[in-house]
Amino acid sequence: MKFPYQMLRDFVETRLDAVAIGDLLTMAGFELEGIEEVEGDSVLDIKVMSNRGDGLSVFGLAREVLAKDEAAKPTELYKQAVARFPMPDEGKSNGAQVAIETPDCARYAARLFTDVPKGGSPEKIQKRLRQAGMRPISALVDLTNYVMLEIGQPLHAFDQDKLNESRIVVRRAKQGEKLTTLDGNEHELRPDQMMICDASRPVAAAGIMGGLETEVTDGTRRVLLESAHFENTSVRRTRKQLGLSTEASYRFERSVDPAGVVAALNRFAILLAEMDGGKSAVAGVADVYPQPLTRAAIKLSVKRACLLLGMEISNESARGYLERLGFGVAGGGNDLQVTPPTWRPDVVREEDLVEELGRVHGYNQIPEALPHGATLQGGVFGFEDRVDRLREQFVRLGFTQTISHSLGNRSALEAPGIELIGPRIAASPEHAYLRSSLLTSVADAFRRNGAKDL
Fold it and tell me: Which of the four, 154, 183, 197, 329, has the lowest number of CB atoms within 10 Å?
């Protein structure tokens, strides 16, 4: 992910320059792939692992900097992001009709805007988008991309007047339905693909790309802004089937924070209000969240963590590292009850927490020491050794050993009454089924070695 250094400074007060920030993130597990100068600012290119979708935002990387750099301080913008950009109208309904009819969508929220400003976005936003490798298009599109770059939540805007019955239904496609995406390509849809629909038809490929028929144009008067949480495997499957790849799908495939759905809408509304004074916003948010995500606490022994890591970490430091990363920490002393945040689905066991302590404290602080202890004699021992000795005795007595593949073709020598199973995609007809008897393999070996009759 590319982002300008000054954008990170919006979230973190730090004395570290761009090079030092790159080194810090690399030691935290986010490898720096390069730094380049773009329009007068250093732009960092960070490699984000597939299970760390929280790192695909400046806010997420700022959290990592604050966790490792004790001298760094959070800015007011960072504190607002932690609080999810609260707005007074958040609990009100705006009248938008939203329904979820598939388990692949955990949450869907929408804000309404009228008479949105035409033209381009502020030069500061356009410049930062260009620095991050994105092309400025219009005020509306630029703000959605900027929010995605800031906090990692993709957004999509619909022309509200082009939605049949002004409704949004999240469901799977029906047989025979088609969708023309914003790139102008028409796609025949499959029943396993999740779509954003209005009252009668698909209008967007969920988490991937919007539809051309409901595109926002200069003539748009009312805008429905979407923010949602989609199942990453569903987005990945549909994206591959449609042959599309977007900044949104890249993030959804790596999982976004379900608790940040409304926060992204709020951040967009704040940025838009700075442009038009709040004239276009319609009060209220439509938020459908049937089963809010909860995370169970994980027991962590700091003493065991130190033993596994091979270095000492104090109880106070361990608590501080986890809290700065956004984990909930209860208990005291050596035994802690740690609740992972909603944006960290990769943390599910104590060993994951140990890894968090290790990478934030610094693997470079593991003390160097010569190896010590007894060296065992190499080779096979125990049960495997007895099996090898028995096999050798059989060979010495004149038996012939055959070693064959576990997969084969159908044969009359297979065990009767057994349904054969095999891989979904067989390498060849000769390796299509898992054998149920050794007789087939022995017979094949006998035939290959010159036998004419069995």
Answer: 183
